[in-house]
Amino acid sequence: MRQVEWNGVYPAVTTKFKANGELDIPTFLKNIEFQVKAGIDGVVIGGSLGESSTITHDERLELAKAVLESVGAKIDVILNVAEGATHNAIELIQRASEIGVHGIMLLPPMMYKPTDEEVLEYFISIAQSTQLPIMIYNNPVDYKIEVTIEMFGQLKEIENINAVKESTRDISNVTRMKNHFGDRFKILCGVDTLAMEELLMGADGWVAGLVDAFPAETVAVYRLVKAGRIDEALKIYRWFLPILELDISPQLVQNIKLAEVITGIGTEHVRAPRQALKGDERLRVLAILEKGLATRPQLPDYLNI
């Protein structure tokens, strides 16, 4: 079993579709190849950006298998699990384990506002059903369920719950987690617009969105920060921020897929009920992207620092 370190940049990759709605595996893998060349450390498949709510278990496993066969020896391949029933999550994770997935990103129970006790039992039952390492996704802003410090205090006893995707939008939560648990949980920022700030506060990694279109710039920011070259990272990050803000939108999938088109490593096809951007909103997003491309910074040799 591959040892997942939960360090570095983990793109939350988009799911590529053909115009008829079928999976587009060649285009999906083209994007993955660009990510790997830029120096990413792993990918998260079938997350919110991967249009999790519209793809089947079979499809997300097909995507994972394609990545495992293509670059699985080079990067961590993490499958997102967002289910409403414990047994459905366990079944999906068992199938993921059978094809060789390296780890799991696990959301609280979906489609129902559970109690803290129910969330904990869900996480613990699933973790005990598998040997795969697990990263908990803590996003109370979008999913209305917070995994609190007290809850993590109970989860720390579960050996294969190793990390958290920190999306509370509260930068102080990085320090709060470090103060309570030291290095027991790896912390990966899950909000593009707070990434450099959370890395400076000690976050171990970045589950990124706009990396799907701008992989080199994303990895450069991460590696420069970790190398202590803050001024260089900040210059890139300040250029990047107007683009990164496209991640904190209800249309983040459409925004980022349009960005992938602009940078030549994706398509805009989405699954209904989503629709591609149009009208004034499309023009607004295009203007942000085009300005960014026109002023794209020269990157240092970040892969060798």
Automatic annotation (TrEMBL):
<dbReference type="InterPro" id="IPR002220">
    <property type="entry name" value="DapA-like"/>
</dbReference>
<comment type="similarity">
    <text>Belongs to the DapA family.</text>
</comment>
<dbReference type="Pfam" id="PF00701">
    <property type="entry name" value="DHDPS"/>
</dbReference>
<keyword id="KW-0456">Lyase</keyword>
<feature type="active site" description="Proton donor/acceptor">
    <location>
        <position position="137"/>
    </location>
</feature>
<dbReference type="InterPro" id="IPR013785">
    <property type="entry name" value="Aldolase_TIM"/>
</dbReference>
<protein>
    <submittedName>
        <fullName>4-hydroxy-tetrahydrodipicolinate synthase</fullName>
    </submittedName>
</protein>
<dbReference type="GO" id="GO:0008840">
    <property type="term" value="F:4-hydroxy-tetrahydrodipicolinate synthase activity"/>
</dbReference>
<feature type="binding site">
    <location>
        <position position="207"/>
    </location>
    <ligand>
        <name>pyruvate</name>
    </ligand>
</feature>
<feature type="active site" description="Schiff-base intermediate with substrate">
    <location>
        <position position="165"/>
    </location>
</feature>
